[in-house]
């Protein structure tokens, strides 16, 4: 059970990271549940940071 939850949250973070790197808006987050949404947004922030560092 714990592994399934972790995998789901890791997938949400990964999808958010990809959206951030690709310059997508945080408004497109597909998750409504608080925990998955938090992971997605965290990944999105990391992606945006990575993108800005690559541009330097």
Automatic annotation (TrEMBL):
<protein>
    <recommendedName>
        <fullName>Ribosome modulation factor</fullName>
    </recommendedName>
</protein>
<feature type="region of interest" description="Disordered">
    <location>
        <begin position="1"/>
        <end position="24"/>
    </location>
</feature>
<dbReference type="Pfam" id="PF04957">
    <property type="entry name" value="RMF"/>
</dbReference>
<keyword id="KW-0810">Translation regulation</keyword>
<dbReference type="InterPro" id="IPR007040">
    <property type="entry name" value="Ribosome_modulation_factor"/>
</dbReference>
<dbReference type="InterPro" id="IPR023200">
    <property type="entry name" value="RMF_sf"/>
</dbReference>
<comment type="similarity">
    <text>Belongs to the ribosome modulation factor family.</text>
</comment>
<comment type="function">
    <text>During stationary phase, converts 70S ribosomes to an inactive dimeric form (100S ribosomes).</text>
</comment>
<keyword id="KW-0963">Cytoplasm</keyword>
